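Study this pair:
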Amino acid sequence: MVLLAASIAAAATGDTLLSKQRRQEIRKRYGNYAVARIEAALKLINRISALDDIKKLTSVNCFVNRVHFVSDQRAWGKKDYWAKPVEFLGRDKGDCEDFVITKYFMLRKAGIPEEKLYFTYVKALRFNQAHMVLSYYRTPKSIPLVLDNLNFKVLPATQRKDLAFVYSFNAKALYLNRQKGLGEVVPGRNNQNRKWAKFLDRLEKEFQ
């Protein structure tokens, strides 16, 4: 918790990046600590925007992984719920999909292009259950780097022997996964991710 606590403490000083109205809205809904946590996320984005991609990935992965993991049922009272970054950071809890969504938008705001970031469904072998991670591809044929709430280290997919990669997607395409490169596009299957595409498009305009 030291890194997150230090980031939040730093966010409490200096210029605020949230408007007065936005701060009041967040405070009313989530409390004072949430204001500092969201402010810390915005300041982190600003701080890393000029850095190389690897440093961006590592910084965001470490920051977001400090949030508490709980199921959607416990966090939101629903079997499946996709939390917006402000909801996730405000409540300080969420499931693997919520971690991925927040990392994705923080990295997008820090300057990493959409085409390098993919939502990836895997099987967490240790827990024998479905799981989601964020994959970063330097090029479409590169071995992806994996951002995972189960691991604070950003590692190549080939080093994640604890994960079985199933498929990756963004708003444009769905790929059957291989550890090296994006794998094979699945014709006609992108329709199953239309809800994701609409959700991401909407959040692209809302995240702050």
In short: The chain is about 45% helix and 20% strand. The chain has a mean pLDDT of 85.
